[in-house]
Amino acid sequence: MSMRVKKNDRVRVISGKDKGKEGKILRRIPVKDMVVVEGVNMVSRHVRPSQKNPQSGIIKQEAPIYASKVMLVCPQCGAATRVGCSFLESGKKVRVCRKCSEIIDRI
User: Fold this and answer.
1) Which domain holds residue 107?
2) Same domain? 61 vs 89
C-alpha cells in the first residue's frame, strides 16, 4: 500500500489515545504501513547501561502507529486533509490538498 505521507510532514492523529495531537513524522515504516510521529504514542523503555549509554533507567520514546490513523496538515490552510495527486503541465507529479486545492510539494 502506498503511503501518502512523508518524513518531516506535519500530521494530526485522528483516532486512538492520542487523538488530536499534532507532530512531525520522524520515520516511516512502509513495509508495515506505520509511521513514528514526534510526541505521539510515547512508551517506556527499560534500558541497561552500555558503552554507548552509560546511564541505565527508564526512558520515554515514540512508538510506531498505523499511517491510517494520521492525516496530513496542509501548510497553506492549516487543516487536516486528505492528500490527492495531480500532474503539472510539465509532467511533474505533485501532492495536492483536498480542501484548498493547493500544491503541497513535488513528489
Assistant:
1) 81-107
2) no
Mean pLDDT by 10 residues, the chain (107 residues): 82 95 95 95 94 91 95 92 90 90 80
Asked if 65 and 85 sit in the same domain, the reply is no
| C-alpha to C-alpha distance for 56 and 80, rounded to whole angstroms | 39
**Grid coordinates of 106:** 513535488
Q: What is the pTM of this model?
A: 0.83
Residue 27 is predicted with a pLDDT of 95
The helix/strand/coil state of 41 is coil
Same domain, residue pair 32 and 67: yes
Residue 17 CA to residue 40 CA, distance in Å, equals 9
Q: Whose grid coordinates read 500544491?
A: 103
Return the pLDDT at 53.
85
Q: How far apart are CA 87 and CA 81, in angstroms?
A: 19
Residue in the structure block whose three cell numbers are 526512558: 59
Q: Give the chain's largest Cα–Cα span.
A: 57
